[in-house]
């Protein structure tokens, strides 16, 4: 499948057919809170969330969003929702930097490189490389590769979920293998149950990143077509990993954060075959 072109900075050429570019990576299976670059500084972002909350209660979206989801979101769109979310995004970024320093720093010698493990679709709809990140080992006598279950082999994706600074965000088809999936769900469940990281510091009603992005879209200043705004905000169907029940475009809130699997709506039928999901 051909993706739309995306601008990239050319760093250098290795040879006549190998340019080296600056390529952004989107870490899969994890979603951290957004920083101010997404919806503006807290005051600006809060205006968008406030508009979203008003529209959820004034009938604007009644025909397009079920009442239970509208009530769920309205309860989370507090007067400090944007401030807390963006602060959590800054903290998550700092935690990730600290994680990189901790796990890529060797006792002696140069800083360890990162291993990039592409997965699933390889490139997302924005041209970002979809991948897992982990420390790189040379796998020789001087730098042996640890056993598969050794903590040093854990991906940074898993570590961010386990710390509570990133919510589990499984999106088909970029899914880990069964063993890694089970480990990820277990760590995500612990982080949520024990209210680690962002939930501990900013409250369990903190908007998750995908909720924040959806509410910002629903709260845009110009709203000519409410249905189009809802369709843009909710493009992924949610599946409950506990029983593989498809809860639909607007039912994710019925499932604990640690058991949500998302599927692009236009790929649901293929996902039913790939994952052996129940039929209609």
Task: Please tell me about this protein's structure.
- It is a single chain.
- The chain has 280 residues and is an alpha+beta fold.
- The chain has one domain.
- 39% of the residues lie in helices and 20% in strands.
- The strands form three sheets. It has a five-stranded mixed β-sheet.
- β5 (114-123) and β6 (129-135) form a beta hairpin.
- The longest helix has 24 residues, at 81-104.
**C-alpha end-to-end distance:** 28 Å
Helix content: 25-40%
What is the succession of H and E elements? EEEEHHHHEEHEHHHHEEEH
| Tally of domains | 1
> What oligomerization state is this entry in?
single chain
Structural class by helix and strand composition: alpha+beta
User: Could you tell me the strand content as a percent range?
Assistant: 15-25%
Mind telling me the C-alpha Rg? 20 Å
Q: What is the overall pLDDT average?
A: 94
- SS element count, helices: 10
**pLDDT under 50 segments (min length 5)?**
none
Give the neighbour order of strands across the main sheet: 4-7-10-8-9
Let me know the number of strands: 10
Largest sheet: 5 strands, mixed
Q: Assign an overall shape.
A: globular
InterPro entries: SNase_OB-fold_sf (IPR035437)
Describe the structure concisely for a colleague.
The protein has 280 residues and is an alpha+beta fold. The chain contains ten helices and ten strands.
